[in-house]
Amino acid sequence: MSVVFYTFAVIIVFPAELYFSMEFMIGKKILSLFGRGYLFLRYRNKKKVQQELERKFEGQFRNAGVVLLADIFMALAVVAIVSFVAAVLYFLMA
């Protein structure tokens, strides 16, 4: 019984854990790239980028990427809500 369970764990569980950890690492890399690009486009000076990175983002470009992504989603949410309200008002007034 334990041999069957161990074989099942090796075949099914361990590759899944590896897959999800790789997926997490890829997401972490993408967020780091977004954060790095955002900070260098905004401040354009390595010293200023490093200061802001330490002050606002706990020294991690990934945190800057998360903030950028959250800002983008917030802006999209505001646009969607305003569009919905405008559509409702348009159809109520028409």
TrEMBL record:
Superkingdom per UniProt: Bacteria
Lineage: Bacteria, Pseudomonadati, Bacteroidota, Cytophagia, Cytophagales
Bilayer-crossing regions: 6-26, 65-92
Keyword annotations: Membrane, Transmembrane, Transmembrane helix
Protein known as: DUF3899 domain-containing protein
